[in-house]
Amino acid sequence: NKAYKAVAQAAHYREGGFLYPAAGVREKVNAKAKYYNDTLGFVPCDLENESVSKALEYAYNDWCIAQMAEDLGHEADAAKYMERAGRYRTYYNAETGFMRGKNEDGSWKTPFNPKFSEHRRDEYTEGNAWQWTWFVPHDVKGLEALMGGTKPFLAKLDELFTTDSTIEGEHSSSDISGLIGQYAHGNEPSHHITHMYNYVGQPWKTQALVHEILTTLYFNNPNGLSGNEDCGQMSAWYILNAMGFYSFCPGDPTYSLGRPMFDEVTIKAGSGKTFTVRAQNNGPKNMYIQSARLNGTPMSQPFFTHDQLVQGGVLELKMGAKPNKRALIAD
Questions:
Q1: Residues in contact with 283: Cβ distance below 8 Å, sequence separation at least 6, in sequence order
Q2: Is the predicted pLDDT of residue 271 greater than 70, yes or no?
Q3: Is 36 in a helix, a strand, or coil?
């Protein structure tokens, strides 16, 4: 309960009650953006830089708090933070199909260019609208509905990876790097996006993109990363995906399947147990999962849970050179 109390308090702006080692720390921990989110229900772009990025991260953070509240039996708090977790919808502009900045009066900021970036001085942190529109890891189905359903969602997601990689703006963020279309693997806010296809019935596209990134955006030399190594995330992405899975939404103890680089990996799961990922017929061209079995049981979806991992067992993936579009189709 103490941990829950701490994270719940940290989600809100507080006038007093904290001791800060420096004013700069106060501005980060007790950001004015939290005040706007508390009092206005959104973060206005004419009052706060990086407003869209901050607001989307607040929504995800609030979703995580709601999970804690639910587990602890705080039903009123769970409902409160789930409402806040849905505030990402405030920033979606249906006309353009992107998350955009809103002024205090509720009007959209104009002009708008989804490829534009002005480092730390526009609505997006180290990115642009193309990269940040997808930061709703806690509610992919909700984002899909905002975009008009599965077909338009997939069309937009495909376009992210196929549109040209031009980043516009005289002072664009240098953190936008490792580009595939407008997907920026060199910066962490994009890292979950390749696995979104698993949630909308096209897991073979996740497998192909993960393969492309693992083999073209990581190198065994001093410049081996395509972007900055904030908190070890660039390496963490590689390690997990090279084993064949990824934590799509921390806070949800579910792993999303990708494309394993190794024929066999064994993880020590604790209490003397191990979890083995075994890829049959694996190879440089055999990037697609043909079928999957967990502890001998056929898998119908491209997901397994952390509980299943720590209980130990064997994940068997049969690989092939062509996508099996009927395998691992999520409901």
A1: 319
A2: yes
A3: helix
Report the CATH number at residue 75: 1.20.1610.10
Q: Is residue 136 part of a domain?
A: yes
- Give bridge partners of residue 184 from the DSSP assignment: 179
How many domains does the structure of the chain reveal? Answer: 1
* Rounded CA separation 114/120 (Å): 16
Domain that holds residue 6: 1-145
Whether 12 maps to a domain, the answer reads yes
Compute CA 293 distance to the chain's CA centroid, rounded to the nearest angstrom.
26
Q: Is residue 124 left, alpha or beta, with left meaning phi > 0 and alpha meaning psi from -120 to 50?
A: beta
Which residues of the chain form beta strands (DSSP E)?
92-93, 98-99, 179-180, 183-184, 245-247, 254-257, 264-270, 273-280, 288-294, 297-298, 303-305, 313-320
Whether 325 is in a domain gets the answer no
CB 165 within 8 A of CB 181: yes
CA-closest candidate to residue 188, choices 251, 230, 154, 217: 230
Amino acid at 61: N
- Please indicate, yes or no, if residue 81 is contained in any of the structural domains: yes
- Three-state secondary structure string covering 236-262: HHHHHHHHCEEECCCCCCEEEECCCCC
Which residue type sits at 316? E
Helices (H) then strands (E): counts for the chain? 11, 12
Q: Return the pLDDT at 28.
A: 73
pLDDT above 80 (res 24): no
Q: Are 189 and 132 in contact (CB under 8 A)?
A: yes
Name the pTM for this structure.
0.95
Whether residue 287 contacts residue 211, with contact meaning beta carbons closer than 8 Å, is answered with yes
CA distance 157 to 152: 8
Cα-to-chain-centroid distance, residue 182:
15
Cα separation, 276 vs 309, whole angstroms: 9
pLDDT surpasses 60 at 331? no
User: DSSP code of 126?
Assistant: S
